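Example 3.2
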Amino acid sequence: MDDNQVLDKQSISVSSDWDGENDLSPDVQWTHPYLWEFVQLLPPDGHSLLDVGCGRGIVGALARIYRDYDRTVGVDVFEPYLKFVEQHRFYTEMRRLDLNSPLPFADKEFDVVTCLEVLEHLNKGAGTHLIGEMQRVGRRIIFGTPDRFHQQPEFDGNLFQKHQSLWTPREFKRLGYNVVKARGRVNISVGSIHITSKHEYLAWRDA
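Structure, written as tokens:
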């Protein structure tokens, strides 16, 4: 049984009662396998970062620790996540935003725009639109996404956590992106279930 089959089988029993403010134990916990590579892609001479689909703020935390940009903006549609990152002050600004809408920022407003583990939660049309919007508002664009599709339902009470699409490295290369495969594995915990998958990569380009 490969990693993708394990994920398909185990992802169906996720609960949905995390409120993001009073409960510090979300439904699913995971570690990204490409964080070392990701930090290397953050421009050391940059001043501003936009994190699209910021979730619980891993990008904001890394940027604050390793780059200390003057302006970091986190956007997400899920209010409990925004409350969580506000509590921990991972970003200098936060906005609630439906990613099916245009990004409310000026052309090239940010030195770097990131989107980790988000694109697969949009359908292909919305994902294509988001890629274009990120290229419009950012100078360096960084995506992180799996290269295999697996069924994932909603969790943390977040309807948007369901997987809807697959983006392959080949698709990103056709769009002019560089692809960096993760050297490690993502470790996912769902309650007492622990899952390991190696199908993760980064895609990045300067726009």
